């Protein structure tokens, strides 16, 4: 594929009233609609009208935060996808779900059903969850170690992959004359017996339009990168600078190549959270206004939880001491990888505590930018054309206003540059991302014991 | 409430191409659309146009049957409800889910989200699942005993009830000025510590429009009846005769009264599967035709699985020996209660094996009737007015044709008799069923340790 033909992928990451933690306090926010499915359907329809690749929902099976200072309750995302799928035709539908807290048979069914119902538009953002408070919703006192979570995640993924493949593509006969609804030779018990799971199968559903939903992953820890390089087809990641993003991009692509994968089938999609204005000053003014609405107690609690540090003794308007986040450079888990982003900001920019809270308020470590449509399009183009991104997970600080501004002003510039589609060329999320449709593991395998994951 | 004002409840039990196991082989069946969500959306819209109370989906997290002779794969029902909810406005949305194979926190979220997204139309048909083959999809070799399943079900229900109540109705403030999204005094950790579950909470969602989805139950075993009398607000049940139905109705209502419940808040809804024709002969002709399409190997496998008996040595056209199902009168579990229906048919009607298979092919033990709209309306009226039913779970043998016929011809007769609504008077499923909206267990409770289930 030449650079000229290479196309950006753009997702709309839908998140309550916006990605800025104080967006809900804006006078024009949609906070009264934070739990209204129509609010999300409208945004998905707007993203589809702009030909975006997908919408995306984060998730955690617990409150986002124990503090009362922002929308912390959230509708379950897979049922949201199902509702949105019934009111859209083309846009991809990605939701996050945890391998630590679901049964693989249940989760395989949920995503299979969304993929079937939507005509092949489902994607699964695979996470292992890292919160003790979530663990306490599921019979545990604390979250398992990253090593155990990722070992379980890999086996979980192997199980659901087998389940999604358990009906071969041509297994359904629906032959009125013979009375055979399916071909028994083409529906396979998976007979999985592993460390964490014993699952007989087959899945209670025929193979879905995409064969399997798109495998998405969002962890940047060592375990997360290894898992992503082996399994993921799209990776959501957080970087503040093009340098950091390029290093991550190179690392993931080379890991994938070493595992024998085609690096073009591993899309790297950093987050970008754009404040837009007709002028740069107008964009920054909006950013400053929303920053001014933050509740410091919320940001402090988030930062203390992330870093395992105490911040209560610091003055909001004094420089953050360099030593506070020192030693965070060793990426052990996702908390630490996000913490490294914080340490880098502190070291590079020497912000006051208030300034640091504002920096994180916008995108929780993702790249927050404020500028004109042209400036934002230039950043996207620069990252895309210089080995830092295959596309972006777009995280508007305020919904729907800043998604609407993005699709109305930034997308056309990217289209004019030939970097982004003006019409969908396919019908599935795999089509949009340029990913192949996988064959069933069981296709052409006479003895199902021979069908093993490689 | 006087008899005159008492209103029927009518659900459309959606099930693939129809409830008759051979419906898919009919020349005009919709078998090609068996996994097309639009097929189910259209039916739900038709049921809503006829002002029915709800649609209903059965479920089992496994194949319906290992035999290839009928549609055995099925879309996951909660995501189906979500999709249908996004395309309907008033009709109730009931899906089946198993307490044995879900985590309570996950299931609480799924139904809460459907209830919120649909404006208060969700119902949960609570089942414990009784199949060993399903157990083998979930790390087990065989299904737990009925006693253990129902003990787990009760604790599961207690947990999800607490979760659904964990946000008081007025917990969301969304107060831009103060920066408080919720009132911390009104969001409660549930801190459940029981035999099977330890769940901290709160739920990751505000309280839903109905407070809790409607609690539906469909078991008729001893354990099932006790569970239903204690917990259920609507009960789906299978009876062949008005006598059996009245005995069940009386038993359930008196059990509920003994537990201090209002018997009007426990709706008893038998299944009815109507073949309709302009004349009785025409209806029976359609029934005979679809019966003729059955594959005996399918029905035999179902019956053998149900009864734990071998039937292969019998001639299809000889009378079923009375002793074959003798001793099935002791209702131990749901399989046995369904088996008792079979034993009663054999004893009462002395059918050949083929005739017995045809009897069961239509509704798996539910009441299959063939007649004119007036005849079917008369049966419904007779059962409703004589203490056998508060309404019906309508199970058309062939979709969409026999649902359309029911709504076009039977419903108007019931409306003319003043037994069924001509317009919805409320917006929620609780409104349709005439059920109260429960207060949160935590409402007005200062110390959450005081909030205990009674």
Automatic annotation (TrEMBL), chains A, B:
Keywords: Flavoprotein, FMN, Monooxygenase, Oxidoreductase. InterPro entries: Diverse_substr_monoxygenases, Luciferase-like_dom, Luciferase-like_sf, NTA_MOA. The keyword Flavoprotein applies. It comes from the Bacteria. Residues 24-325 form the Luciferase-like domain. Belongs to the NtaA/SnaA/DszA monooxygenase family. PANTHER family: ALKANESULFONATE MONOOXYGENASE-RELATED, C2H2 FINGER DOMAIN TRANSCRIPTION FACTOR (EUROFUNG)-RELATED. NCBIfam families: FMN_nitrolo. This is LLM class flavin-dependent oxidoreductase. It comes from Nocardioides panacisoli.
